[in-house]
Design brief:
By secondary structure, the chain is of the alpha+beta class. The protein is 19% helix and 37% strand. It has helices at residues 26-36, 53-62, 73-85, 116-129; strands at residues 43-47, 65-70, 92-96, 109-112, 135-139, 150-154, 157-163, 170-176, 180-189, 192-199, 202-212, 215-221, 228-236, 239-242, 253-254. β11 and β12 (215-221) form a beta hairpin. Residues 1-17 have low confidence and may be disordered.
């Protein structure tokens, strides 16, 4: 599922650099950072950083550590000079590298203003190499069938947000109130969940099942009853751990 991609239509490629440089409006820069909720705890990677304005804005306005990735040496030099003029050298770094090979595993936020075709080619990397919960923000271009978790509109442009989902597909089991044994067979397409759940080997209705990063929220209802069961977990070490403050049920383990 995560290996599929589609080559879409977009702006004509620069034969040397693949993606044309188009400066991002300052209103859009701030809207992108707002949508990502960037803070001082974040490490932001801007793929196709150009003149460095997103990287520097993340450092100046939100004290985030930020890395710009670009393949155009003159743009990188311009970006470094801009960061220096703003006194942000201690928080930012600009590196010359390819989007498809640069190590992005430490990122908590990834920003992009590329092309849809490039987004789709990058999609497998973003899904497999970024930690669950990492926020991805794209100016103008989406990710095809991977639907955004949020979006906004600024200065005439769409801005999209995705939260990298954990891999939770499979069969899970857990206990509630000693006598209640639950079994769940989950299917997954990006952050969208499906599947079936049984209570003591009898099927129950799934009212809601949501995945946001590494967090799962599940609401079930026994047929013929008004009683609902709500479960909230966080995926850690391949186990659905009970979230802080939740009581009355156990962590779920893979069957």
């Amino acid at each position: 599922m995560y290996n599929e991609f589609i080559i879409g239509e977009g702006i004509e490629f620069n034969s040397d650099l693949n993606v044309p440089f188009v400066p991002t409006d300052e209103v859009i820069v701030e809207s992108m950072l707002d949508l990502a909720r960037v803070t001082a705890q974040d490490v932001l990677y801007d793929l196709g950083s150009g003149d460095g304005r997103i990287v520097v804005a993340a450092a100046m306005g939100r004290e985030a550590r930020a890395v710009g990735v670009d393949m155009d040496p003159p743009r990188l030099e311009e970006a470094r000079e801009f960061a220096a003029s703003m006194g942000m050298e201690h928080l930012v770094e600009f590196i010359e590298d390819d989007f498809f090979s640069v190590d992005i595993s430490s990122a908590t936020v990834v920003t992009m203003y590329l092309l849809q075709s490039i987004n789709l080619l990058l999609r497998p990397r973003l899904l497999t190499e970024l930690k669950p919960g990492t926020r991805i923000i794209s100016h103008s271009f989406d990710m095809g069938e991977w639907k955004p978790d949020d979006r906004c509109f600024a200065a005439g442009s769409d801005i999209f947000k995705w939260i990298v989902p954990a891999n939770v597909a499979g069969v899970w089991e857990w206990q509630a109130e000693d006598t209640q044994h639950f079994k769940m067979a989950l299917t997954q397409k990006f952050q969208q969940l499906g599947g079936r759940v049984w209570l003591n080997k009898e099927p129950v209705n799934v009212i809601t099942a949501t995945l946001r990063g590494n967090r799962i929220a599940l609401t079930l209802q026994v047929p013929g009853s008004d009683t609902q069961h709500t479960f909230n977990w966080r995926l850690e070490d391949d186990q659905l751990q009970v979230r802080t403050g939740e009581t009355g049920f156990s962590s779920a383990t893979r069957a």
